[in-house]
Amino acid sequence: MTKAVLITGGSRGIGRATARLLGAQGWSVGVNYAQNLAAARETVADVERAGGQALAIAGDVASETDVIAMFDALEQKFGRLDALVNNAGIVAPSSQLADMELARLKRMFDVNVLGAYLCAREAARRMSTARGGAGGVIVNISSAAARLGSPNEYIDYAGSKGAVDTLTIGLAKELGPQGVRVNAVRPGLIDTDIHASGGKPERAAQLGATTPLGRPGSANEVAESIVWLLSDAASYVTGALLDVTGGR
Ligand code: NAP
């Protein structure tokens, strides 16, 4: 039977690249997006062309109502849930903490932390063998920022990703006995739209050149690691934080 995965923030960037690779492996993919229906539709078409099935699912991960509805929509369409790629995330313009407004801080933690926790909670409720589920896999998308701290750029974002790492460590221990593996991927400087949304479209190219591998990474290179963690090839891997950073 075809496996089904929900990818939050599946419409663009790392989420879209992951959807494409999973489509090529025959997965059914729930492509969550916040605003960009056109991009979500493109991802759905890519998955279908690659050989999988897909469904665009609107929803803000920071909204509990939306998150529950997203998982319900996926299960209604595909009849099962085998995996979550907890990927939706935001940055904000570079700033020192002293200059950050409360609204920015709240939104950062609402989307990147509360959103990740709510999505992981829903996946746990539905996949845990202790709750009637069939087991599964969660891959949380953190960031190298969690260990770098991102001074003068966005220490709010870095802290939100620190929380994602800690979620991964704790939840892997909770859910290991319940048939669910939980890991995190920590990308470095990856060539996606996220840098433009933080006001620096050239950031990945410029800083990527300073990494040991001398270039930014591609969304596809991150997606490959996510797909591996989702697969049975990673059957003994849980609670791991996998850096995909070109050595940064
Ligand atoms: P991206 O290209 O900016 O895409 C962001 C995706 O998240 C889009 O699909 C967007 O949907 C969705 N999204 C944003 N806010 C959302 C919300 N509140 N609810 C649901 N979906 C939401 O980002 P990316 O670079 O692929 O980043 C993906 C993940 O990797 C993020 O967690 C990010 O922090 C992490 N990461 C990225 C890098 C990097 O260098 N790119 C490095 C380290 C970590 P719409 O299309 O509807 O806007």
Give the secondary structure arrangement, pairings included:
Elements: E1 4-7, H1 13-24, E2 28-33, H2 37-50, E3 53-58, H3 64-78, E4 83-86, H4 102-127, E5 136-141, H5 145-148, H6 155-175, E6 180-187, H7 194-197, H8 203-208, H9 219-230, E7 241-244
Parallel strand pairs: 1-2, 1-4, 2-3, 4-5, 5-6, 6-7
Helix pairs in contact: 1-2, 1-9, 3-4, 4-6
NADP nicotinamide-adenine-dinucleotide phosphate binds at residues 8-9, 11-15, 32-36, 39, 60-62, 87-90, 111, 115, 141, 143, 187, 189-190, 192-194, 197, 204.
Short characterization:
This protein is of the alpha/beta class and 248 residues long. It is built from nine helices and seven strands. NADP nicotinamide-adenine-dinucleotide phosphate (NAP) is lined by residues 8-9, 11-15, 32-36, 39, 60-62, 87-90, 111, 115, 141, 143, 187, 189-190, 192-194, 197, 204.
Give the CATH architecture. 3-Layer(aba) Sandwich
Assign a percent range to the helix content.
Answer: 40-55%
Strand order of the largest sheet: 3-2-1-4-5-6-7
- Mind describing the biggest β-sheet? 7 strands, parallel
- Described by the principal axes of the CA atoms, the overall outline is globular
Query: What's the count of strands?
Result: 7
Amount of beta strand: 15-25%
Total number of distinct structural domains: 1
Q: What features would you describe in this structure?
A:
The protein is an alpha/beta fold and 248 residues long. It has a single domain (4-243), classed as NAD(P)-binding Rossmann-like Domain (Rossmann fold). Helix content is 46%, strand content 15%. It is built from nine helices and seven strands; from the N terminus they run E-H-E-H-E-H-E-H-E-H-H-E-H-H-H-E. The protein has helices spanning 13-24, 37-50, 64-78, 102-127, 145-148, 155-175, 194-197, 203-208, 219-230, and strands spanning 4-7, 28-33, 53-58, 83-86, 136-141, 180-187, 241-244. A seven-stranded parallel β-sheet has the order 3-2-1-4-5-6-7, with helices on both faces. Helix 2 links the parallel strand 2 (28-33) and strand 3. The protein is globular. NADP nicotinamide-adenine-dinucleotide phosphate binds next to helix 1, strand 2, helix 4 and helix 7. Belongs to the short-chain dehydrogenases/reductases (SDR) family. InterPro entries: NAD(P)-bd_dom_sf, Sc_DH/Rdtase_CS, SDR_fam. Keywords: Oxidoreductase.
